[in-house]
């Protein structure tokens, strides 16, 4: 693989990681519910405050990688281990995005603005995930797990993404109930609300629209990439 191609691949995928992390930050800023993949790390952070959301995020991603090994077994390729550094990078990008948006202003309180923030997080996250895929380099373990499940079940990625996100929200609600006796958070910080539902359902649906557009936009670049199974 040529150095130019490698740089382009990682550049596109890294941009994807940054956008997804910004989506996390925006969903938290909305104060209407957090993006589903960040719900478990956030509820754990509320219970164990000495560990950041980003740290819990990469821990969760390592569990996703182990699940891939269990599903694929001998078909698990060494290149998939690039998800490990991606997990660390993304975890701390999330911490950075949370810090960035917290430093700008207080969480939104106007309901119309909260909805707009949630919808913006949907769009940014959908674009970020697709860029990870188009870059064909490192990819978030949650998205790779979703892709593997989609391949194994022969279902559209967007459809499996919806199911995967809803499962993460359900796990978070259970943890919130066990930790704090309620389903939405700890009583002061809201983790699950209608914004979470918006992100869980609309991100996968949004990708059905944004994916073809991004494929067309990046086609002049990605057509020159080495085949994915090479």
Description of the molecule:
The protein has 230 residues and is mainly α. It has one domain (3-221). It contains eight helices and no strands. It has helices at 3-30, 39-47, 53-72, 83-104, 111-135, 141-153, 157-180, 194-222. The termini are close together.
Proportion in β-strands: under 5%
Shape, per Cα inertia axes: globular
Q: Gyration radius, to the nearest Å?
A: 17 Å
Look at the helices and sheets and give the structural class: mainly alpha
Q: Oligomeric form of this entry? A: single chain
pLDDT average, as an integer?
A: 88
Annotation field: number of helices? 8
Q: What's the total number of strands?
A: 0
Report the biggest beta sheet as strand number plus sense, adding barrel if it closes: none
- Name the helix and strand elements from N-terminus to C-terminus, one letter apiece: HHHHHHHH
The low-pLDDT segments are none
Q: Assign a percent range to the helix content.
A: over 70%
Features:
8 helices; globular; 230 residues; 74% helix; mainly alpha
